[in-house]
């Protein structure tokens, strides 16, 4: 499902217009992104938790040359589904 399909389904189930639904989804994305960039996690009860996880630096290999390269450590966004969501799947 892409973003346009998600907006259409959300609009249909919420009785909002597609334009209002698009604005709500965009706002949600901005709030989650801002919270994660500030180091906070976002917990949505019954759905799951968005958080940052630090992946330390490591050594990798260039697949074309076989040369060893250093891969920098980085924060990555992770999603952990809530038990209610896991049970439904």
Itemize the secondary structure elements and their pairings.
Blueprint: H1 3-14, H2 18-37, E1 42-44, E2 48-55, E3 58-61, E4 68-71, E5 74-81, H3 83-88
Q: What would you note in describing this structure?
A:
- The chain has 89 residues and is of the alpha+beta class.
- It has a single domain (3-88), classed as Irregular (HU Protein, Chain A).
- The protein has three helices and five strands; from the N terminus they run ααβββββα.
- The chain is elongated and about 55 Å long.
Brief summary of the model shown:
43% of the residues lie in helices and 30% in strands. The chain has helices at residues 3-14, 18-37, 83-88; strands spanning 42-44, 48-55, 58-61, 68-71, 74-81.
Give the class-level CATH name. Few Secondary Structures
Number of domains: 1
Taking pLDDT < 50 over at least 5 consecutive residues as the criterion, the unreliable ranges are none
The oligomeric state of the chains shown is: single chain
Largest beta sheet: strand ordering = 1-2-5
Intertermini distance: 17 Å
Put simply, the count of helices is: 3
